[in-house]
Amino acid sequence: MEWASRFRIKLKNFQRFQLEQWIIAGLFFCTFLLIAHYTGLMGPSERTLFISLSLLFAIMTFVILNTKGLRFLTTQRQKVEKNTVRLGKLIKDADKRDSAVEEIQNMSLDPCFDEKPSPQKQEILAKIANAVSADKVSLFLPIENHLVRIGRWGIESADLEGLKIPLDRKSAIVKTFKTSQPIISANINSDPRFDRKLARLTGAKQAVCIPLTFEGETFGVLVATNKTEGFFGKEDVMHLKSIAFSIASRLKKISLEKGVGQRIEEEQKFLSEFAHHIKTPLTAAYGELELALTEKNENQRKKAIEFALGCLEKSAREIKEALDFYYTKTSKETYQKIDLHKILREICEVVCVLAEQKTILVNLNGKDQIFTTGDRNKILQAVTNVMENAVNYTPRGGRITIDLKKRNGMAVVVISDTGVGLPQKDIPRVFDKFWRGQTANNKEGSGLGLSITKSIVEAHGGTIGLTSRVGGGTKVQISLPLADSKPS
């Protein structure tokens, strides 16, 4: 270490200094002897007295010169003993911290993520506090646009359980979560980054906020306050980062497991609903085909086969729609800049053929080119689904209007019709899979059209909304992000 190296240098200098002292005293004594011998000015008794005095003077000179060196040696010995004790304490503290961190990393961290208090959670938070010599520790996780304290140790106030901090508040904890950077403060009462009211309630004076970050994603914030000895430093941040990494990695795993579980549950529900939905036409087709095999009347046999074919066509259409719904997610590699006005013109040309059969007037407003970015075929399919619904549920002589405009950085497509409309109680369910309202009883379809449209729009970073009233028609609004510029 540096201080040991300095001590060795000083010790060598001291030894060299002692040697110089002896040489100086010896030379001084010899000089007096030579003077006494060659001068002949002194008698034997005077010479003996002079030599004695010279020897005494030399010894006194050595002692006086050596006192400083002895004092230096004593001081250095004391410094060595002090530094040795300090070094031993540092090594002991470091071992204690490393042991605490390793123990936390080997524990099951799952209780930390439960919002309800538990002894296991308290034990984990107590060990975290012990690892950095803090008297208070809090764990915050993001829940519904808030950072919610789901765990606390050392904070007695029951009012602070479940503390919620809005993500738009100016707070050091929020800033740590958003920037994924640690924040340390030696005095949070005078630090504008911290909430003083919260500091008074918790009794915190100094704090360190560490983000729970794993693979570039931040899952929450770990906060330690009031170090029991000294101030929070780089070593504390390093240890808390190790603990936070372990917690974040477990959170990532839980998030993935939860996502996979939800996906499996959704797929199972979808398959169950689809199997139930397609069972009716297939059963009907099977029954009619059985009848056709035994029917001797040619006309009745033909009708049975035609009915069976109709059921099979319906089933095939519904299977196609189900596959469309299942594969609504597309790779961004297929994205391109799309002229929405051009897509709407193409859709109108196709839909107008059906609309003319019911003498429905279709108007497309807006001639400006407005561009979005996405999968052209999917966006075409999404808007077509809405347009076909408008034609199907608008009576003869009705009107369908399509508006295209820009609003707040979004390309907005609004499709309005003068159709039968929907009751208010049905509106929340219109985007549910396989749902069909009472007005759809006599209409063909699987009930997947608007679900497919919603999935496609959301996959492109957009939103879809619907308003309607019975007898007053329906309005569907699709908003998609604007492209940066027109395609070349």
Automatic annotation (TrEMBL):
Membrane-spanning parts: 21-41, 47-67
Claim: Lipid metabolism is one of the keywords in the record: no
The entry's keywords: Kinase, Membrane, Phosphoprotein, Transferase, Transmembrane, Transmembrane helix
InterPro entries on file: GAF, GAF-like_dom_sf, HATPase_C_sf, HATPase_dom, His_kinase_dom, HisK_dim/P_dom, HisK_dim/P_sf, Sig_transdc_His_kin-like_C
Keyword Heme: no
Name assigned to this protein: histidine kinase
The organism of origin for this protein: Candidatus Curtissbacteria bacterium RBG_16_39_7
Catalytic EC class: transferase
Catalytic activity from the UniProt record: ATP + protein L-histidine = ADP + protein N-phospho-L-histidine
A GO molecular function held by the record: phosphorelay sensor kinase activity
EC code(s) of this entry: 2.7.13.3
